Amino acid sequence: MTAPQSSAAPRRVAILGAGPIGLDAALACAERGWPFTVFEAGDRVGGNVRAWGHVRLFTPWSMNVSPRMRDALDRAGIAVPTGEHH
User: Fold this and answer.
1) Is 71 helix (H, G, I), strand (E, B) or coil?
2) Which of 18, 34, 54, 70 is a good FRET partner for 28, with 20 to 30 A between their CA atoms?
């Protein structure tokens, strides 16, 4: 997906939630140079992941982390679950 070309100032992207998907969206914006703000209701980033070990959704963990995010986490030395937990 590409951004439409415009001469207007770029709008900020609002990202709701600082879990795996929200942080992946923030990474995508940062890589493209788009201004963004992450809004998180919890008291810290990744609260559910920290509490549960992974986000309990209807999909396995591997589907909650994109290749882009997995590469970024690997570069940062952050381990992610490798199992197919639900």
Assistant:
1) helix
2) 54
